[in-house]
């Protein structure tokens, strides 16, 4: 399974150039799409799930043109949108059955079996007769992923899937996706939660202001940050100075004052040591040092 | 296949979602509860039986679907506009939109899902209705109308309104605005567009005539299918457009192209059907115009006299084939080279022997081989075949009259004038199913008007198993041919063929038959014991009626024949006889539909309630009860000239009469009077062709005096008054030529007829004149009477010449006007008896003679009108009335004195055609005292001219120049937009609705108001002082004046004086300032109430009345000033 994006642009009617000349190829497996708010991630997602037309460019999904072969591409799609709500008057089972029908599962008996199996997989079997609106936040997300996965789609796009979930739910979610990614499917995970990508994705892209800034493995991005990540032991006064000078990843109070992790090529005058970078460090390093962008702490 | 699967998937879950929405659930429950109780009340023995539903079982599903359809159309709009609104906002829809489903599948699925839920609701409701129907003790159950109405009313409405709503939402993209636009559209179709362009805007089939007969089904199924098809296809087209406008990337170019094609096709089909529908109507209108123009061209041609008809007819399913042989005579004074016969244009002439002919639509121009000399006869035989072109019928009905008819209660039933179907045949003279002499109608005067008495013989061949009914003695031969031979010459003949059951009884040489359709005998349950004693009941009613009208039934049989419900006739100006009443025959609507006399269930319930309410200990035997039902049926159906307008509001359709409308006299189409006059006598007058109609009007009016005064009080102008108003400044001849409103025309004829005969009766003496007229007509039955023959007899008997009355009566626009003053009523002792003297001064203020009739009602209340009719009573009347006719010259005053043997309860003066409004003046008499010195005798004496006014009095009435009203402009823009044009708004005087008085000052008339000739006043609802009436009284000489206000006392309700005290607040501007007298009306009568003494010295005094009162209504009538000495 492969997705090829060539020269993709999207300009909204209000003049906003949301995607600027994006070119990339996505192979089977988990693919992470990272970037700040307004980077163009959702726009790219909506184009890929055929909800929106690009202004120019081409997208090929396994050789099928997104503009011409929409029917075939849709039949292999699964999608969990960012702000996902429910048909308030449908029960959990009914909603999933509806999705299954639209996914092409025409045979009633086999569809019933598949729906029940999916409910078990996402841990919603016990809640199958509950109205979808009465599920907890995590259960709603599980239902969302269930409807995205039903019918064995080959291209699964999940947009900010773990927002608002507790750690246990988040881990469950990642594991579920990872299991699916073992098959010949492309799972595009669009998020601004770095941990989701670091734990699941083998490939990733970083978007910023509509431009594809980075495409490669998470490891390589981390490598770019090597020697640029510091742990500084700072006094109270130094802490305030450091805040002004460097992007702070974390700050933990200690006996001496503060233990601060920063990203920078150097930390002149401060007591600190280089530490092993992770993806979060790498992301900040990339934004600050490679793109010369001021990283805004969320 | 995948498409069907997708559609079903979307539909299934859409319907689940809709079904589970609280809004829909509440609506459904409310609808079902309403339907339940509505049927519980109307169809079970516990509630009140609905006459329409009893008469015509198809009205049950129709009425219920009507209610449901109206409600669900609005709900469907709301829910449909949710479509796309939901789809726009929630990302949930995105997980559907990215699926491999075409836009068409999605929209169709959504639509079907919505429609399915409403369909289920309809079916559940109809199921409930069917259960009630099947269990109903009143009527029978028929499944077919349930299916038809569901398919023809509900489905196209739902598809259209949903498609249209979806489409609008797709374009407007705002639910609130879409909802408002749609509600506005619904309101416009309901209240304004209604039946415009023959119901083409009526997408809910709200007013579309769709009555279903158990005999012929829908009378115009093709028209109904076209109409419903318009909306069905437009709905589909809008759904197609919604698919194309859906904001989702389509995935199939082919499907998109198919959708485009089908959308265009459906919309085009809908529009095309609309054009076909309109074109049919405009073609028909054009067709009628052409036929009328042809008639006008030949109206002046001399008319032959047909002495006999020999008709042989075969019923061939949707056609008839006939041969008619006419024996024609030239009764003119000159030879005829050509004459015309009229034959329905739908009947194609195949052969005509005995003369040459050419055909021009409805006319056959006959050219005898040689000129037909005066007195000569000619026999021609015409063979023809075809069906009835109904557009030919009633050419006198203008498009405006037809529009008005559509708004009437009968307008929703349909407009069939003939039936030629395999299941049923009905042909009446209006159809011209056999050739008749002359033209059927011309709009250029009345000179074409004629009637002829001919001998008829009719032979009919019909399908086996069908009953053939017509006039005359009936015999059947072994070949299945039925022969009819009327014993007397008739003016016309009609024919009905259907599956009838017939029952008959002979009473005093007249055979009464009742022919009804198979299974239509639900009336049997109300006549279980009477069957063996029906003869005395019929005899008794007939005798009472014939004593009243002083005529005897001239035929040997009377047939009551049930006909399909859609049959409709219009009244012609030149005769009150409708097509429902033929010689020896009355055609009654199916099941007694809209005939209050056939509501046996209602009558039975009413009498049970009355017995219960009054704890009636009297035992009424079942026989007497059933005799009462029968008497009521006969009286209400056949012996009343007009339909009770309260009964006309039986249906549930919105629209029609409102509080501002004057009552329209609805002529009773089953009034049997034509069998006592129209089919016996005809008075021909070349100079005054309306003469026969005038005589007919006089004779029939005297048969049914009275009228529902209760309704007149509520609804304003009576028929006579409307006639009177029309005659102000217009001559009779002018009105006959130009008046398009048949209601006003009828009233004018009635008024002028009363006036003419009052003049003659005044000259001769009422009893003498009536006796003469009756004898004259009785001696000349079944032939044409020339008016000169009548005139000669009048000269011989009374030295009276019609020609001294007729010219002025016909051509003058002048009218008399009367003032009545100085009424005295007292008792005297005379000849050892107590007698009553009533005396008054009558003045004719105009330059033309007049005549009035004074009627003294002796005895109790009720009689011919005034409230609900009691059982067993009705057209015969139970009061004793004494009638006196008085002639009065131009500008003349008379003191009239009447000596009566009993106390009169009331005196009514009918002024006929005059300047007086109301045209009748009534006065009640309470307990009269004996005047020991009084004396009196019948006297009619001319006295010095007086109009009764005191020179010391200054009176300003609301009709005078010094009066005006002040009120805010109240009609809202919306109200203006949606108020349909109401013809009665053209009348100056409006109806008075005392239950729901008008907010604005409204000019109305009533006998209780002040006025010398026009007794009118303004009235409005009691309010907060935002409305005023102002009198400016001219003061010639300054000084102290006693001020009075005339406060009318209007009785309403049968309880009499049960209205609250009327309090009036005035503002009087006088020399010393402004006073605010508060006046309380007199409890007993209308009179002048004193308001105090004031000094006025300016040229006018200003008196104001405001509507600031807690009383229900306020009347602004007149004020009077009397100078103090």
Give the percentage of residues in beta strands of chain A.
25-35%
> For the terminal residues of chain A, how far apart are their CA atoms?
35 Å
The biggest chain-chain interface is: A-B, 33 and 28 residues
Strand order of the largest sheet of chain B: 6-9-4-3-13-16-15
The overall average pLDDT of chain A, rounded, is 86
Features:
heterodimer; A: 298 residues; Rossmann fold; 2 domains; 4-stranded antiparallel beta sheet; 10 helices; 14 strands; B: 1125 residues; alpha+beta; Immunoglobulin-like; 7-stranded mixed beta sheet; 6-stranded antiparallel beta sheet; 47 strands; 35% helix; globular
Short description:
Chain A is of the alpha/beta class and 298 residues long. Chain A is 34% helix and 28% strand.
Task: Write structural notes for this entry.
The complex is a heterodimer of chains A (298) and B (1125). By secondary structure, chain A is of the alpha/beta class. Chain A folds into two domains: 2-216, Rossmann fold, CATH 3.40.50; 227-276. Chain A has helices at residues 41-48, 70-74, 92-102, 108-121, 137-149, 167-181, 194-200, 218-224, 236-245, 279-290, and strands at residues 2-11, 17-27, 29-34, 56-61, 64-65, 77-80, 155-159, 186-191, 203-208, 211-216, 229-234, 248-253, 258-263, 272-274. In chain A, the strands form three sheets. Chain A has a six-stranded mixed sheet, sandwiched between helices. A four-stranded antiparallel sheet of chain A has the order 2-1-4-5. A four-stranded antiparallel sheet of chain A has the order 12-13-11-14. In chain A, a hairpin with a 4-residue loop joins strand 12 and strand 13 (258-263). Chain A is globular. The two termini of chain A are 35 Å apart. By secondary structure, chain B is an alpha+beta fold. Helix content of chain B is 35%, strand content 25%. Chain B contains 26 helices and 47 strands. In chain B, helix 14 links the parallel strand 19 and strand 20 (557-563). At the A-B interface, helix 2, strand 6, helix 3 and helix 5 of A face helix 1 and helix 6 of B.
């Amino acid at each position: 399974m492969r997705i090829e994006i060539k020269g993709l642009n999207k300009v909204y009617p209000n003049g906003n150039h949301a995607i600027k000349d994006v070119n990339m190829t996505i192979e089977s497996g988990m693919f992470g799409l990272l970037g700040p708010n307004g980077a163009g991630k959702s726009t790219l997602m909506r184009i890929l799930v055929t909800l929106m037309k690009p202004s120019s460019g081409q997208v090929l999904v396994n050789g099928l043109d997104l503009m011409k072969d929409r029917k075939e591409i849709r039949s292999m799609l699964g999608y969990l949108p960012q702000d996902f709500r429910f048909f308030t008057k449908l029960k959990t089972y009914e909603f999933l059955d509806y999705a299954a029908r639209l996914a092409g599962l025409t045979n009633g008996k086999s569809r019933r079996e598949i729906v029940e199996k999916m409910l078990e997989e996402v841990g919603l079997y016990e809640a199958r007769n509950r109205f979808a609106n009465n599920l907890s936040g995590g259960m709603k997300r599980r239902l969302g992923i269930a409807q995205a996965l039903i019918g064995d789609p080959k291209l699964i796009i999940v947009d900010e899937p773990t927002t608002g979930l507790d750690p246990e739910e988040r881990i469950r979610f990642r594991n579920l996706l990872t299991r699916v990614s073992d098959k010949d499917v492309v799972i595009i995970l669009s998020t601004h939660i770095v941990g989701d990508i670091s734990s699941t994705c083998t490939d990733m892209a970083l978007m910023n202001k509509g431009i594809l800034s980075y495409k490669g493995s998470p490891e390589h991005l981390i490598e770019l940050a090597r020697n640029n990540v510091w742990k500084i032991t700072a006094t109270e006064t130094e802490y305030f100075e450091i805040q002004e000078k460097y992007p702070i990843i974390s700050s933990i109070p200690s006996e001496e004052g503060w233990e601060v992790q920063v990203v920078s090529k150097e930390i002149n005058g401060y007591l600190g040591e280089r530490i092993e970078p992770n993806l979060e460090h790498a992301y900040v390093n990339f934004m600050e040092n490679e793109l010369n962008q001021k990283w805004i702490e969320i | 296949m995948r498409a069907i699967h997708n559609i079903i998937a979307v539909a299934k879950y859409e319907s689940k979602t809709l079904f589970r929405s609280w809004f829909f659930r509440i609506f459904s429950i409310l609808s079902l509860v309403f339907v339940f109780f509505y049927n519980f009340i109307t169809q079970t023995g516990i509630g009140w039986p609905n006459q329409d539903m009893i008469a015509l079982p198809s009205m049950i599903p129709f009425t219920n679907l009507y209610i449901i359809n109206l409600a669900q159309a609005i709900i469907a709009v709301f829910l449909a506009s949710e479509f796309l609104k939901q789809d726009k906002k929630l990302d949930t829809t995105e997980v559907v939109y990215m699926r491999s489903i075409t836009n068409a599948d999605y929209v169709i699925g959504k639509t079907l899902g919505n429609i399915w839920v409403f369909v289920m609701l309809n079916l559940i409701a109809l199921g409930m209705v069917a259960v009630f129907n099947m269990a109903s003790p009143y009527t029978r159950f028929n499944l077919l109308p349930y299916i038809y109405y569901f398919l023809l009313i509900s489905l196209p409405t739902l598809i259209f309104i949903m498609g249209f709503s979806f489409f609008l939402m797709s374009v407007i993209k705002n639910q609130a605005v879409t909802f408002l636009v749609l509600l506005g559209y619904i309101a416009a179709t309901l209240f304004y567009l209604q039946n415009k362009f023959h119901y083409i805007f009526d997408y809910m089939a709200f007013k579309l005539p769709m009555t279903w007969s158990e005999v012929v089904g829908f009378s115009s199924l093709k028209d109904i299918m076209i109409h419903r098809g318009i909306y069905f296809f437009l709905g589909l087209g809008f759904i197609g457009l919604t698919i194309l406008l859906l904001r989702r990337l389509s995935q199939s170019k082919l499907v998109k192209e198919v959708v485009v094609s089908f959308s265009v096709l459906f919309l085009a089909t809908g529009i095309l059907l609309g054009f076909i529908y309109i074109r049919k109507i405009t073609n028909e209108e054009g067709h009628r115009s052409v036929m009328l123009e042809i008639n006008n061209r030949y109206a002046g041609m001399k008319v032959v006299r047909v002495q006999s008809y020999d008709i042989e007819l075969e019923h061939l399913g949707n056609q008839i084939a006939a041969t008619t042989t006419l024996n024609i005579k030239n009764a003119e004074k000159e030879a005829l080279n050509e004459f015309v016969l009229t034959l329905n244009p739908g009947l194609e002439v195949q052969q005509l022997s005995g003369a040459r002919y050419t055909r021009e639509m409805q006319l056959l121009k006959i050219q005898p081989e040689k000129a037909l000399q005066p007195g000569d006869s000619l026999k021609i035989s015409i063979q023809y075949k075809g069906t009835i072109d109904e557009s030919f019928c009633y050419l006198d009905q203008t498009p405006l009259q037809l529009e008005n008819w559509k708004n009437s209660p009968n307008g929703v039933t349909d407009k069939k004038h003939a039936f030629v179907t395999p299941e049923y045949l009905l042909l009446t003279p209006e159809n011209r199913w056999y050739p008749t002499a002359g033209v059927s109608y011309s709009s250029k005067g009345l000179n074409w008007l004629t009637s002829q008495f001919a001998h008829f013989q009719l032979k009919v061949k019909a399908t086996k198993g069908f009953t053939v009914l017509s006039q005359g003695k009936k015999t059947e031969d072994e070949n299945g041919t039925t022969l009819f031979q009327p014993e007397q010459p008739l003016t016309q003949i009609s024919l009905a063929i259907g599956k009838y059951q017939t029952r008959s009884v002979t009473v005093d040489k007249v055979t009464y038959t009742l022919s009804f359709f198979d299974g239509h005998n639900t009336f049997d349950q109300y006549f279980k014991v009477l069957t063996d004693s029906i003869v005395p009941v019929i005899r008794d009613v007939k005798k009472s009626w014939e004593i009243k009208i002083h005529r005897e039934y001239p035929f040997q049989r009377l047939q009551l024949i049930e006909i399909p419900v859609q049959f409709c006739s219009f009244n012609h100006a030149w005769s009150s006889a409708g097509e429902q009443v033929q010689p020896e025959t009355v055609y009654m609507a199916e099941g007694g539909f809209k005939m209050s006399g056939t509501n046996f269930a209602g009558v039975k319930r009413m009498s049970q309630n009355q017995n219960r309410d009054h704890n009636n200990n009297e035992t009424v035997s079942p026989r007497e009860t059933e005799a009462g039902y029968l008497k009521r049926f006969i009286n209400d159906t056949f012996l009343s000239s007009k339909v009770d307008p309260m009964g006309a509001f039986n249906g549930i359709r919105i629209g029609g009469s409102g509080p501002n409308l004057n009552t329209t006299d609805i002529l009773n189409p089953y009034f049997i009077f034509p069998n006592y006059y129209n089919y016996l006598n005809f008075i021909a007058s070349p100079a005054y062709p309306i003469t026969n109609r005038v005589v007919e009007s006089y004779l029939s009016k005297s048969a049914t005096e009275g009228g529902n005064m209760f309704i007149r009080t509520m609804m304003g102008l009576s028929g006579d008054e409307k006639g009177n108003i029309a005659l102000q400044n217009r001559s009779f001849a002018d009105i006959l030529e130009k008046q398009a409103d048949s209601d006003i025309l009828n009233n004018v004829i009635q008024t002028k007829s009363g006036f003419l005969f009052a003049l003659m009766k005044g000259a001769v003496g009422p009893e003498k004149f009536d006796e003469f007229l009756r004898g004259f007509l009785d001696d000349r039955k079944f032939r044409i009477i020339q008016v000169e023959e009548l005139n000669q007899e009048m000269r011989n008997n009374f030295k009276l010449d019609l020609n001294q009355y007729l010219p002025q009566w016909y051509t003058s626009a002048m009218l008399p006007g009367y003032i009545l003053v100085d009424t005295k009523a007292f008792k005297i002792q005379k000849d050892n008896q107590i007698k009553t003297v009533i005396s008054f001064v009558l003045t004719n203020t105009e330059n033309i003679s007049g005549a009035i009739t004074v009627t003294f009602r002796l005895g109790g209340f009720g009689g011919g009108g005034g409230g609900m009719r009691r059982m067993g009573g009705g057209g015969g009347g139970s009061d004793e009335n004494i009638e006196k006719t008085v002639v009065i010259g131009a500008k003349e005053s008379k003191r009239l004195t009447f000596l009566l043997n009993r106390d009169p309860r009331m005196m009514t003066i009918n002024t006929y055609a005059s300047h007086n409004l109301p045209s009748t003046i009534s006065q009640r008499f309470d307990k009269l005292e004996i005047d020991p010195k009084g004396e009196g005798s019948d006297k009619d004496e001319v006295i010095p001219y007086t109009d009764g006014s005191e020179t010391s009095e200054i009176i300003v009435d609301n009709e005078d120049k010094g009066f005006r009203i002040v009120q805010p402009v109240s009609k809202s823009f919306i109200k203006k937009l949606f108020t349909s044009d109401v013809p009665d708004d053209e009348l100056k005087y409006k109806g008075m609705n005392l239950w729901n008085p008008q907010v604005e000052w409204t000019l109305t008339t009533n006998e209780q108001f002040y006025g010398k000739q026009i007794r009118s006043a303004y009235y409005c609802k009691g309010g907060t002082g935002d409305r005023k009436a102002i009198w400016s009284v001219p003061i010639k000489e300054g000084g102290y004046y006693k001020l009075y206000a005339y406060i009318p006392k209007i009785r309403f309700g049968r309880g009499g004086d049960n209205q609250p005290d009327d309090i009036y607040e005035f503002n009087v501007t006088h020399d010393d300032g402004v006073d605010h007298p508060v006046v309380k009306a007199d409890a007993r009568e209308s009179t002048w109430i004193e308001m105090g003494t004031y000094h006025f010295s300016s040229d006018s005094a200003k008196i104001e009345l405001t509507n600031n009162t807690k009383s229900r209504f306020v009347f602004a009538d007149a004020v009077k000033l009397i100078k103090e000495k």
